[in-house]
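Re-running Tetratricopeptide repeat protein to confirm reproducibility after the cluster update. Everything else is unchanged from the original entry.
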Amino acid sequence: MYGKAFAPEYQGQLRDMSVNTAYENVLAAALERESQAVDEGSGLELAQARLAVAEAYRRLGQLDEADAAWRASYRAARDAGEQGAMAWALWSGGTLARQRGQMTAAVRWLSSARDLAKQAGELIAYGYSVAGIAETLRIRGDYAEARVLHEELLAEARRRGECRHTVWALEGLAQLDRNAGDLDSAWRRFEEAAEIAEAGGDERGLAWALRGLADVMSLRGEHDEALRRLSRAEQICRRMDLTSALAYNRKMRGNVLFRACWYGEAARTYRGAQKMFRSINEPRGAALAELGLLKSHDKLGRPRSATERDLRALRDALDSRELRHTRRMVEEAISEMAEIAA
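Result of re-run:
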């Protein structure tokens, strides 16, 4: 049995805010609380308010503002001698680094957050930090290590009955299964994640689970139903101002359209997703959208030599250490085109 989802990153005077509050509203409340905390001279309350500010800015895609806010949160927590609040600030900074495609920095910040949380006895901050490390390793392409961490987190989350942690771990493992080609296992995990998220009121987790289910469905040829799942997830993303999640949703819609051989519509969708990713400085998503766009143009009859040239340029622009999996996907596309040409 799982409890209702809550947002532990909303702390102090903001702790009663719903996990599903739209991020424009979160930002307004957090900025107001930050101003009050300055007047009150409370270092801990200031750190907590700035953490919420950082997370709202990050989710809204305002990454420079998010960077300044988490650092300000950390300074306020350090000055107040609050290790737990320092850990939360570092978690936010590590999560932001991952969103920016800075995987090495993300692991460094998240590892520091984990260590501080352990010292402070902040169990939830510790769990969030370890989960962040697992997700970063998975995105970077370190699958074996990521799987071990996700499995450990899932066991702990089930034991504690924590909705969001369980959903997060299930989705991470489902993505690993999907990347390994085990669609049946991926489907079961995404489906369970969606059920737990919906029952627990975790709309963020539900949106990501629906995206995962749509991916598996389209790989099985069920394109129309996949698009319906994505439409439902998109509604959640727009309602909650989930800018990055919305961009990934649009990129997945492009994938589904491409698999359905609707290449013109796929190209338009990828182009829109790419603009969204670029507007929030998210290089991994932008690269994936560009990959889809180039493959769509190839199917629409663009000269193969031009597409191969652009794919090589995209590959060379990707750091092989930071975005290993994304670079590998581009390399596979180049190889596939070379085989077709031969």
